[in-house]
What we know:
Serine Threonine Protein Phosphatase 5, Tetratricopeptide repeat; 23 helices; globular
Amino acid sequence: MHKTLRSLCLSGRLNEAVKTLFCSGSPISPPTYSLLLQESIHRREFLLGKAIHSHIIATGFTPTKYLNTKLLILYTKAGELKSAHHLFDEMPDPNLFAYNAMISGFAHEGLERGGLELYYSMRDNGVDPDPFTFSSVFHACAGLAALEHGRRAHCLMIKRKAVANVVVGSALVDMYFKCSSLDDARRVFDELPDRNVITWTSLISGYGLHGKVREVIQLFHQMEEEGFRPNSVTFLSLLSACSHGGLIDSGWKYFVSMIEDYRVAPKKEHYTVMVDMMGRAGKLYEAYEFIRTSPCESHSTVWGALVGACRIHGDVEMVKVAASRFFELMPENVGKYVVVSNAFAASEMWEKAADVWERIGRLGMRKGIAWSSVASGK
């Protein structure tokens, strides 16, 4: 049985392996369970991974500490943090891998504060962080804009002489930018022993986040000169900078270069930025034609960008056209109705704005209540 399962698993037939496992009706060895779970995680076949877990429970098998850690990683990768936390709480002595899985899971699911609390709990329990831990902690600090917590973790990393690989380095650069500490971000980048497109993109994106258009363009060319090929995220930051800087000619040049020189296929985000760039400059009809001839004509975000531009420039006719397409795409999204209503109101099209709110009422939707995490003390 064990050889059959391993053979199926290693040959890429994970689904068959799980079916065979359930046909057996009896537990298997921890290493084989571990292999099956690892393949589930690697292939992001989380339902199969949960099925393996149910087999473990149904057969009365008691998982080893290593196997429990694998299960914990499975649930954090699947975004099921409640189940993951339940497994974590049942561990008498969580190891580094368990802590790392939990901190990473919380940070990447937008629960950064919980990730930081786990990090400090880990420290209190005498578990030493590794580069993977620091990467997740910096990600959490970036999400919270928690500069002091990020600096403490950075100081500890230096004290422990942990090597800042490209993943950790990129997370650290991003953290300092998100915390509005541009000088620290640049200093970290300049001191990195190794750089790749990810670290360069973190630097370029960071300056773009703060509206430093000249720096973004200068760093992009420096990156090219040092032999690094920009990726889609790099180009998105570059095009966004051109949009905010009103550099239409440069934006078009980089957009064409992305496609022709680097063979990077534009995504809906790139098309949306291009529409935004033309819209900011008042080139609404050029933006409209660009959308109509693009592969992203059916994506609501590009039409949303055009609606926003029409609102700024008060183009009554174009806002009608853009709003019509905007409504057709994901019509149940109340936020889109609010955006369109505001666009009509900005153009003093009061009847149209009222019609939108009447439509919201007919569909039984209501605008969500806003709240402040600062006011709530969270």
